[in-house]
Model the fold of this input.
Amino acid sequence: MVRIELVQPDVFSIDSAFDLAPLGLVRFPARTVVFRTGKGELIVHAPLGNAGELFEQLDELGPVAHLIAPNLFHHTYIGDWAERYPDATLHLAPGLADKRSDLPAGRTLSAGQPIDDDLSCFAICGMRKIAEHIFVHGPSRSLVVTDFVFNIREFSGLMTGLVLRMAGAHRRCAQSRLIRALVDDKAEAAASARAVIELAASLDRLIPAHGEIVDLTSAEQSAAFGTALTPMAAAGA
Ligand SMILES: [Fe+2]
Done:
């Protein structure tokens, strides 16, 4: 049973899991975030699978107007969603339209080009293989990231813990080594990491696609978030 949980007014979380290995041996918790706009329309960030009954629940919240594939990794199911919601505008990470020629035409995500009045978009630079874009939801003062930062505390799968330890992201707020390995321009990535730290300083929470929500108003959790980004931020100095 998939549940849609209210995180903040007009911000919903759909928690599921993503298998990175057969038989569920490596299974990351994964989140889709849904925002409801002032017009009552829905924006779906990083839509995941298992969507049959979910679609019915979602339809009760409002019409889906926007679907976001925020990076070059989280796009597996977006075609199913586009089929279910043909009137929704697709927002694709740069390069995804070439990678997924089966998808309908969409807009390319771009820094400074908001999805809606309440949802701003920022680019993570220097990592072209993932081309992640992150978002700030103004009304709830939330930062939404996909793979840029993990905060996985609970998980299933016999090998998941081992993989998270190897990635340096076991039960803590962290940037995985796998993500840092995707950096192709250290100076650009460092500038992005520093910009995100600065951005987060004025926000209340981080909503990651993998793991628990980080309370940025907590000195301890905010410091942990800053520490997570420090290696990347320092690498281009
Ligand atoms: Fe991911």
The CA atoms of residues 219 and 225 lie 10 Å apart. The radius of gyration is 17 Å. Residues 73-74, 146-147, 209-210 surround fe (ii) ion (CB under 6 Å). The longest strand covers residues 27-36.
